[in-house]
Design a protein that fits this description.
Layout: H1 2-19, E1 36-42, E2 50-53, E3 58-61, E4 63-64, E5 67-68, E6 79-88, E7 93-99, E8 109-121, E9 127-135, H2 148-154, H3 156-168, E10 176-182, H4 183-193
Parallel strand pairs: 7-9
Antiparallel strand pairs: 1-6, 1-8, 2-3, 4-5, 6-7, 8-9, 8-10
């Protein structure tokens, strides 16, 4: 009799485990405290291209010619990821976000304050907005910017560094710098791409 229960129990545990996996793409855009949320895919300081695959609810290394895609440039200057429950364009990817702060591991969900939007253009001609944000918790903020004006006034070199890094980090498909937009534009972009 116990031989019959073991496979059944194993099946139940497997189903329960897969049913409990977090679907990061479907998390709310804003937390219960009405703070914007960011899902981290690529930790600050990493060269590994990691992206979230909503079909299997897993973070995966992107592949390039059958191998893990490694950025052949300086490592990511911040924690790169997406804003949950947003969808940009045809590929279903969430709106990109770069969180300026200490390294956060892949799969971390952070409450953030948007301070700017870096506007880029892909080789295809598609616009590529990246919301630039700081952690909402003051204890996690390395850069004390709360809006575009304070970022520009107190940390102009951060804007230059980010602009240069994103334009030159991918030599096979270089991006074109379009411009910087403020936190109000970032909020409009978030609202524009939120799933209804």
């Amino acid at each position: 009799m116990s031989r019959l229960y073991f496979p059944f129990l194993l099946l139940l545990v497997t189903i329960a485990f897969t049913a409990c996996q977090t679907n990061y793409a479907e998390l709310p855009t804003y937390s219960g405290a009405r703070q914007l949320q960011a899902v981290i895919e690529i930790p600050a300081g990493s060269n590994q291209k990691i992206s979230y695959n909503p079909a299997n609810k897993a973070f995966e290394n992107e592949k390039l010619a059958g191998h893990d895609h490694v950025v052949q440039h300086l490592p990511y200057p911040g924690n790169y990821g997406f804003i949950p429950s947003t969808e940009v364009g045809k590929n279903g990817r969430g709106l990109s976000v770069l969180v300026l702060g200490e390294r956060a591991e892949t799969g971390t969900v952070k409450e953030v304050i948007p301070v700017a939007t870096l506007m880029l253009e892909k080789p295809t001609g598609d616009l590529y907005p990246i919301v630039v944000a700081v952690p909402a918790r003051p204890s996690e903020q390395l850069i004390k910017a709360y809006n575009y004006a304070s970022l520009s006034l107190e940390y102009p070199e951060v804007k230059t560094t980010l602009q240069q890094w994103f334009v030159y980090h991918n030599r096979t498909a270089p991006l074109k710098f379009i411009g910087w937009k403020d936190e109000k534009f970032a909020e409009k972009e978030i609202q524009r791409w939120m799933k209804l």
